[in-house]
Amino acid sequence: MIDYQSLRFDYKRHADQDAAAPARHPVVIVGAGPVGLTLAIDLALRQVPVVLLDNDNTLSSGSRAICFAKRTLEVFDRLGCGDRMVDKGVSWNVGKVFFHDEQVYRFDLLPEPGHERPAFINLQQYYVEGYLVERAAALPLVDLRWNNKVTGIEQSDDGAVLTVETPEGSYRLQADYVAACDGSRSSTRQMLGLEAKGRVFRDRFLIADITMDADLPTERRFWFDPSFHPGQSVLLHKQADGMWRVDFQLGWDADPVEERKPENITPRVRALLDSIGFEGVQFRIGWASVYTFACQRMERFRHGRVLFAGDSAHGVSPFGARGANSGVQDADNLAWKLAAVVQGNAPDALLDSYASEREYAADENIRNSTRATDFITPKSEVSRLFRDAVLELTKRHAFARTLVNSGRLSVPSVLRDSPLNTPDADAFTGAMVPGAAAADAPVVHADGSTGWLLRECHVAQFTALIFGQGEAAERSLAALRASDRPLHVVRMDDGARGSEFAAQRYDARPGTVYLLRPDQHVCARWRAPSAAQVRNAVDRALGKH
Ligand SMILES: O=C(O)CCc1cccc(O)c1
């Protein structure tokens, strides 16, 4: 078994370091974390060569982001590495909320059948990064350079020049576009004199990974004010390899250095385990950290030829697992747009929609994260009284459950107001509005074979889903063909067992067509499209209108 935590990657001298003039590349990505790696793989699969620079030669130190959401797994599936993540991770849908020591609420994030992926998996970040690195290594168009630290950036109208420091000295590189995926302390952001602004929360949390031989169902457990950690909150998650993540709220006055010491972590963990029935169970403390956080973002995610993605662009609290997941969705949004622009299939202005769509998503994540944090860590006596009253009521009254907020867990933003959407001209019901990430569903083919809707969406192209058979579906198919736009067509045959999920989720009738962007967001839909409507919708989604 590979120990991903102790892996060291070789620095290799590159021919660019000996070039007389700085070599020029279409895209240079700064930072080989989950976001930079996702973006690099996605671009390479779209036939765009990428240089990916990382300032060290290791994967994530510590388990860090552990909760990877359904949408993130669907992105990883599209990139060809979702199965490994899901096979190694622990899947979960259910969360339990406790007030004092009593369960007051249980929720199921994916109560309906007919989805390939669970609501979440928990997997240590070093595995996620390791699997992405291995996937990238299989793609000749990804040029991953370890121990290549960007120390300077100069922008011009048509690109940027980066200064890169290596163990053998520094060299310069030119890029048509730079993606800054270099984390919350982004040096790219600092070098450009930019900042992220927002609210810093005055509280401290201890995260400790413990390994123990004990089992509980794989569920998220959250305690408000439990007897084993009075006055504070606690969150427990199971990870791979018999590891568990515990988050203890400590309060602002806690001493971060003291709290990280094993002799101070042990009694906290012991009290938790004793309270959940694991009195005799031995445990080992692994990675531990004391953190504070801020909900903040850069005002704009695009600065000329530099695009910011992930934690460099925005930050949230861990509650809701919206950090890494929204970063992967940034990459998902950016990759196809960058590919379309550098390949000459879309104007540069398409990249403005990356910024506006993901700034919108960041606001939604920050809003959710801020509300959850305010509920979890009330900052006044009145807020605490309100919070405790809600939790008390929740035991008996369903209405109060909607007010409980232990973190609203990550779901993709619906990009409802995106300029890339074609507004509906026909009546539809349901959630698959233009801007929504396409819902998965079983697919039943005419020959009886089965698959999953999102797996059928081709990585490189716009996809058209056509529902049903018969004349209406044939007319829609003819319109798609006559549109003269490269479309990957997926036939959603109705009538077969299992096909009802898709028909219902997409409010489909025979002939209904959904147009999906390459990142699987719906951008248009019709009951019976014309070729011109399809053509216009594709062009609009490419930023040509
Ligand atoms: O369950 C949640 O709301 C998030 C769990 C989580 C994710 C990342 C770090 C961390 O300490 C907790």
Automatic annotation (TrEMBL):
GO MF term set: 3-(3-hydroxyphenyl)propionate hydroxylase activity; FAD binding
UniProt-listed Enzyme Commission number(s): 1.14.13.127
A Pfam family annotated for this UniProt entry: FAD_binding_3
PANTHER family: BINDING MONOOXYGENASE, PUTATIVE (JCVI)-RELATED, TRK SYSTEM POTASSIUM UPTAKE PROTEIN
InterPro entries: FAD-bd, FAD/NAD-bd_sf, RIFMO-like
Cofactor: FAD
Domain FAD-binding: 26-368
Principal EC category: oxidoreductase
Keywords associated with the record: FAD, Flavoprotein, Oxidoreductase
Listed name of the protein: 3-(3-hydroxy-phenyl)propionate hydroxylase
